[in-house]
Structure formats: structure tokens, C-alpha cells
Specification:
Elements (H helix, E strand, L loop, with lengths): L1 E10 L2 E11 L4 E5 L6 H9 L8 E4 L2 E2 L5 H6 L2 E4 L11 H6 L15 H5 L1 H4 L11 H14 L4 E5 L7 H16 L4 E6 L2 H7 L2 E6 L2 E7 L5 H6 L4
Parallel strand pairs: 3-8, 3-9, 6-7, 7-8
Antiparallel strand pairs: 1-2, 1-4, 4-5, 9-10
Length: 231
């Protein structure tokens, strides 16, 4: 569903991504691993259209989206949960969810009931301001907001960062449920191998802006992966 081929990304004179390629398949979880600062978030922003690439190509559902704006990519079924959540602190939970209506046709501008099946805690908090939620609840809200857009590709940038263990387990369960539906590709950025190992069908490991290991999870040697994660 998603094919990234040989993309380069620069911030001024500094090159953040060097010929990066990866694939995310429908019904599968592709996990991007690596230490801080190796280009994981830059890669996600490039796929979402928030950062222009210099060279290479991004194809989504057999169409070249390399030069499309982020809002056009959202309209084509790409949902993004950014690092740090970036919810609207002064808006209510309901209003935060409704911001996901932006790329949708009018007939789809409602919150799907499945959202509250996946995130029952949000049903009881619809009137609360987003800024009053705990970190774990805000992360659930950020994921739910992305799901309101009905994505066929869901990008999650370090969803476990700063989250309590019980919520991490819930997020893992939700990712498994979404992938098992078979209609969505999931691209997951993680630092923690244990969490990724439980979920990933495929791995891509970054080091200094390059993919240094990639392939199906069942072919990866744990020691080789961990070598690129330890400080």
C-alpha cells in the first residue's frame, strides 16, 4: 500500500534522510526503530507531507504522492499521530475528535461508534478539555482523532513515549485490533524493542538517516537490532 523509495531529506545543509526506502502493507504493522536523532520523525513527516523531500519517491495505493500537500494526503486516507500528541488543550475531547472531520466528505462527518469501543474512557470525557486529561488519555485521544479520518494508513510516531505501562498495553491491544481488521496499514515508530517485537510484522532500523536493517520480523536477529538501539 505504501512504498517509499530512495528519499532524501535536508534541513538546510544538514541531511536527515539518505536514500531511505520502506514498505507498509495492508493488515500489517511496519515498525521503524532507532535511537533518538536518527531520522525516524523526519521520515514520518516526509510521508505525511509535512516536510518536502529532495529526491526519491513516495507511492500510496499505486499513486505518486511525493509532491502532494499534507491535507491532500489526509484526504487520500493517511492518518498521522505525531510525537508529543499535539492535541488542542483548550478544546473539549469531543471538539478534538471533530477536528478529524477536516479531510472528510460531509456525509462522513460524524464520530464512528467504533472509536468508543476502542477507547471507552473517551466516551465519559467528551465534555472535558483536552489539556485536563492525563498523558495517557491524551495519547488515546490523539490516536482516536486520527481514526476519525477513516485512515487506510495510520502513522504512529512514538505513541508510548512518556505513557504509563497500563496505557501502553492498551495502545498495543488497539494496534493489534486495527491491523487484524485487514484494511489498514500501520507504520509505527518506536524506540523500545520489547513493545515493537510484540506488534511488528516488518522492521526497518534507522541509523544516521539510513536504513541499516530491514525485513520481516521473523527473520530479524534480536542482537543485531538491539545493537542500533543501545546508547
Amino acid at each position: 500500500m505504501l512504498n517509499v523509495t530512495g528519499i532524501n531529506l535536508f534541513y538546510g545543509a544538514s541531511q536527515a534522510l539518505r536514500g531511505v526506502s520502506l514498505t507498509a502493507r495492508k493488515g500489517k504493522v511496519t515498525c521503524v526503530l532507532g535511537r533518538n536523532g536518527v531520522g525516524k520523525t523526519s521520515l514520518m513527516r516526509a510521508i505525511m507531507g509535512l516536510q518536502p523531500v529532495q529526491g526519491g519517491r513516495i507511492d500510496w495505493e499505486d499513486r505518486d504522492i511525493t509532491r502532494l500537500a499534507a491535507y491532500d494526503r489526509a484526504r487520500r486516507g493517511i492518518g498521522f499521530v505525531p510525537q508529543g500528541r499535539e492535541i488542542f488543550a483548550r478544546l473539549s475531547v469531543k471538539e478534538n475528535l471533530e477536528t478529524g472531520f477536516a479531510p472528510l466528505p460531509r456525509r462522513q462527518c460524524h464520530i464512528p461508534p467504533e472509536i468508543f469501543t476502542l477507547f471507552p474512557v473517551l466516551r465519559d470525557m467528551l465534555g472535558r478539555r483536552g489539556g485536563d486529561l492525563s498523558g495517557g488519555q491524551q495519547q488515546q485521544l490523539a490516536i482516536a482523532r486520527a481514526l476519525v479520518t477513516r485512515p487506510r494508513l495510520l502513522i504512529l510516531d512514538e505513541p508510548t513515549e512518556g505513557i504509563q505501562p497500563s496505557i501502553i498495553k492498551d495502545i498495543g491491544r488497539i494496534i493489534r485490533t486495527l491491523a487484524a481488521g485487514g484494511t489498514m496499514a500501520i507504520l509505527l515508530v518506536e524506540q523500545y524493542f520489547e513493545f515493537a517485537r510484540e506488534l511488528a510484522d516488518d522492521f526497518a532500523v534507522l541509523e544516521r538517516g539510513e536504513v541499516v536493517l530491514a525485513g520481516p520480523a521473523n527473520t530479524m536477529v534480536e542482537a543485531d537490532v538491539r545493537r542500533y538501539l543501545t546508547v
